[in-house]
Amino acid sequence: MDNFDKDQKQVQYYSNGQFSSEPDQGASGTAYAPRRKKIPTWIKALIIIAAVVIGVMFVATACSNIIPDFGSDNTVSTGFGHDYIGTVHVEGTIDESGGDTYNHQYLLNAIDAMIADGENKGMILYVNTPGGSVFASDELYLKIREYQEVTGRPVYTSMQSQATSGGYYISASSDKIFANRNCWTGSLGVTMGSFYDISGLLDKLGIKTTTITAGEHKAMGSSTDGMSDDERAIFQSLVDEAYEQFVGIISEGRGMTTEEVKALADGRIYSAKQALDNGLIDSIGTYEETIEAIKADYDLGDIAVEEFQPEPATNLSSFFGIVSSAKDLYSLADKDAIEELLELNGTFKLSYICEVRK
User: HSE on the CB side for 318, CA within 13 Å?
Assistant: First the structure.
């Protein structure tokens, strides 16, 4: 240290936030070099996590519209080379646009394939769903009826954990309905969802809105204008029409009068035992017992059972879980909450769906 030449080395000393070419002397007269404050580890971790989430969200958003769903091929082939009973899996929310476990077009194609296949000797509906849209439920129901009318082959239903609303709708025409002893069924009714009136909140925030329409009721259901009595009556008429259709399906399928069905169709959920007592199902039993019953009832012997089950749909967004997880990372501000409510209105459709999920 004696040979240390400050003039040649150009050392800068740091003390009390000030730079100096001369050393700062502590209490002991010893010069000390500067120390940089370290960023806490937990802050570094948060920065890394945020960067990863933002990066993944960016990639998923950019690619989700150009990369097709994996497993989206709805082609259905039979040609098993032997006689069989076909089990059609109806699982998840029934919707024409499909979902993670429900593939509407695949199910329609599967039934069409069995209609055209002489080796098919019957069909079992494996139902585990809270229901879904009126359109999709009815389209699937009509396809099942087409199978019955064209082929004359039996259709049995095996209800699993939940077969409510639209799940019961598609089952109603079955020759026999079996339900697992822990199954929930019923919820016979129609919903259009919830409408939000945020006009009071907008007034409180000093936000004014103007909607330009041609037609008195063109903006009916708007979140910002409220709902008139006439508009409420219009919406109610749509729900009532879908309800009468549901009642007619049950009445025809179960051999009940309209009055008997309406006494049951008040939207409540029934246990398997309750459904058996009120005539909504024929027997309490497992899927395996349903197979045994259809074989015995139609003298099908030891015939094979072939499963028609769509592959779960997976795209980039669902693969990374972006949409749901990203929303959990932060709380919505007032502006964001209002925007979400505005987006919700106008997207509702008539549904045969149970709001209570098992």
Answer: 12
